[in-house]
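Before any further analysis, we paired sequence with structure tokens, yielding the entry below:
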Amino acid sequence: MSSPQYMPPQHPVQYQPAPGEPFGSGPGSAPKPSRTAGAIGVIVAVALVVVVVAGAVAYPMVTRVSGEPTAAAPANARSAPLKVEGVPSVATGYGLRVAPPSAHDIDNRVVVTVFEDLQCPACKQFEIMFGDALTTLRANPDVIVEYRMISFLDGASTNRYSSRATNASACVAEATATGGDWSTWLRYHAMLYDQQPAEGGAGHDDAKLASLALDAGSTDVQGCITANTYADWVSAGTRDALTDVQATPTVQINGHAVDLTAPSDLLSAVEQAIR
């Protein structure tokens, strides 16, 4: 019996707003609610996606990449100094890097970067299928799992849920992970997917996001969520990601997108990169 598989990313990016313009506000930018998220389990391909636009329709086309190991990217490097206000102190650039303590030189760790949008149903299904593999990688002292939470799906809700949830995620990270313990943030991350609102309606309000944070074990972050403290960082991080990523979810190993058909493929690709 073959292993269950997962279909390609459901949310190709069709529109990149100008700096300062809210995501989901531009012409044709509001993605239609996904009608195929329930069918995920057919084909998996978390990959570099080429978006072909014909009229108003975007067709994701998966491009395979070489499975050969790549040189490790510096684990503590930033692509460029951040010129935005309100950057979480626990962030590395625009990413949240979850890694165990290690005696190894941090610059030699393999970096697995996961690009996700908290409003994206395909990202929820990716977490369901690949969650155990990511847990295994997070426990590996040779690996850093970096979460790049981007927010291009504000148009899929009536209250800009995507960017607000990403800000709430950053609030929890800042409140709980400054000592290097990401367990509370990981619980919150999982809860936001477990209780992901449907596309096309209102996402959770600020009070609900704050209540879920308390349920995950965080201190009170209501003020941070209500003030949208990390809005500039969220917006800038999304613009930065969209120069390289055309759909969510996308997985990169040391900066190179990989094509996956099962969790074992992710683990094998990382092992190759470690060697």
Observations:
- The helical segments are 121-138, 161-176, 183-194, 206-216, 222-226, 231-241, 263-274.
- Residues 11 and 263 are 21 Å apart (CA to CA).
- The longest strand covers residues 48-54.
